[in-house]
Design goal:
alpha/beta; binds 1,3-dihydroxyacetonephosphate; 252 residues
């Protein structure tokens, strides 16, 4: 296996007020704030970014936005830009999460613009892809994932892609308690890496981290991480509690 450092990321979604986020961040800092063999990132809601960044300062835990808009500034009420995330202390930004695709009209085309904005702003994009249950049941998993990659990454160079992280999150496994089996996950991760190799060459394919997301818990992280093409996790529900998230971070 190539030398990819695992990344365990927590997506807090629309949970936690400022004080609640502060509590989790403080506890997390004491539990995994100095861990060296795994990279850790949390993505709090926008309103808690500043607070969490302040608390996690001096720790190794990185911070991400859950979304961004592609313009740097302007009259776009309600939106947040890459420079704003950067200014709030973010190093990463989640882009194209299935909940944004499902509820907020995100498409592969908007995802593409957002990735460009993230890279321009010096943020690491975490591109989320994954099939729905109906798509899996009708045998379309690979074609859906392939299209999300091709359209989401259209126009980017190998250099750009090398900076990104991909998160494979089968929609049917998100928040449902239905984790993909390790074989199901590995099969798609291997396919994604194969697509990367075809489009950007072997060294990019080997370097790009591919995270798995969907009902990851302390109990199942070990077997997922044992798969050759799974390089980490994007954790929702189980990242809201510091002790359970730390249990995932310390999977070894
Ligand atoms: P759950 O871990 O709650 O299934 O959520 C996964 C997810 O959507 C992370 O982005």
């Amino acid at each position: 296996m190539a030398n990819r450092k695992p990344l365990i990321a927590g997506n807090w979604k629309m949970y936690k007020t400022g004080p609640q986020a502060a509590e989790v961040a403080s506890r997390l800092k004491s539990l995994v704030g100095d861990i060296m063999d795994v990279e850790v990132m949390v993505a709090p809601p926008f309103t808690a970014l500043g607070t969490v960044a302040g608390i996690l300062k001096g720790s190794v835990i990185r911070i991400g936005g859950q979304d961004l808009f592609w313009e740097a500034e302007g009259a776009y009420t309600g939106e947040i830009s890459a420079p704003m995330l950067k200014g709030a202390g973010c190093t990463h930004v989640i882009i194209g999460h299935s909940e944004r695709r499902q509820y907020f009209g995100e498409t592969n085309a908007t995802v593409n613009r957002k990735i460009r904005a993230a890279l321009l702003g010096g943020l690491i994009p975490v591109l989320c892809i994954g099939e729905s249950e109906a798509e899996r049941d009708s045998g379309q998993t690979f074609s859906v994932v392939q299209k999300q990659l091709e359209e989401g990454l259209e126009g980017f160079s190998s250099d750009d892609v090398q900076k990104m992280t991909i998160a494979y999150e089968p929609v049917w496994a998100i928040g449902t308690g239905k984790t993909a089996t390790t074989d199901q996950a590995q099969e798609v991760h291997e396919f994604i890496r194969g697509q990367m190799e075809t489009a950007y060459g072997n060294s990019v394919a080997k370097a790009v981290r591919i995270l798995y997301g969907g009902s990851v818990k302390p109990e199942n992280i070990g077997e997922l991480m044992a798969m050759p093409d799974i390089d980490g996790a994007l954790v929702g529900g189980a990242s809201l509690d510091a002790d359970s998230f730390a249990g995932i971070v310390r999977y070894r």
